Amino acid sequence: MKVDRLVSIIMILLDKERIGAQELAAMFEVSPRTIYRDMDAINMAGIPVHSTSGVGGGFEIMEKYKIDRKVFSTTDLSAILMGLSNLSNMMRGDELVNALAKVKSFIPADKAQDIELKANQIYIDLSPWMGNRNLQSDLEVLKTALQESKLLTFEYADRYGNKTARTVEPYQLVLKNSHWYWQGYCHKRNDFRLFKLSRTSNLQIQKEIFTPRDYQKPQLDFTDMLATMQTKIKIRIHQSIMDRVLDFCTYEHFSPDGEEHYLVRFPFIENEYYYNILFSFGDKCECVEPLHIRTEMKRRLRDMAVLYEN
Asked: Any coiled-coil ranges, and where (predicted)?
């Protein structure tokens, strides 16, 4: 059952008073039986469609349910177009193209220019400047597997580069902090796992269709947890990296230190990730305190120097 066909039928029913099954079947090049199944699906989705038999009969949506095009304000249409346009930049597909076309059909001619201007005021581009260019094709593979409930096989690399072969039932695609993740039930681990798309390779859709399980969405908000784990350390930074440091804390954490430097109360957890953040600032950042973290930074720098001395 194609989602874009169902959406198209709904839009036709909202726009017309009544239309016959045969006419719809010819329009979408399917059988009348398929149209009847589509109508059942639309009814189950909560849109009240009823049929009238005989000459002049057909399908129609209850009059009180029909949407007046004037119900959408300029702001409403601008927001919808903005969301759909930016989503289509990240994920290609006929469904998004058709949805954009249908929403645009609601735009009155006298408001088209104003709505287009507002819709283009925010543009989201999450494609990388450089790096892994296979993500787009992998996204399409994932989207197809999600829609058709088909198993995926692939190789997955952990953070140390160790690869394992996996077979997974896909359940959700997630965009978090400019990175794509996806959740699925891993047959190797016999549990739900969250996979980072950039660590996924040789992604292949299998013919086997799985029966969806009950599952909970992955936890993606760690704000409260991080608040209890983080401590504040003091770093001294050059003004040239202020914008990068502001990705991790607010300007209220900054205090001037001379003409070109700042002292910053920086949120920190003693693990590899946070040490790597500090090192990513290069010689424009110095850990001032506490002493044990400063000492650990020096030890790591010495180990790094040994690599180049040898």
From this structure: none
Tokens, residue 143: 């989207």
User: Could you state, in order of their start, the residue ranges of all structural domains in the chain?
Assistant: 3-65, 69-119, 149-209, 224-309
At 291, the pLDDT band (50, 70, 90 cuts) reads very high
Per residue in 200-250, pLDDT (tens digit) is 999 999 999 999 888 777 776 666 666 778 899 999 999 999 999 998 888
Percentage of residues in the chain having pLDDT higher than 70: 74
Residue 222: predicted pLDDT: 60
CATH topology assigned to domain 3-65? Arc Repressor Mutant, subunit A (1.10.10)
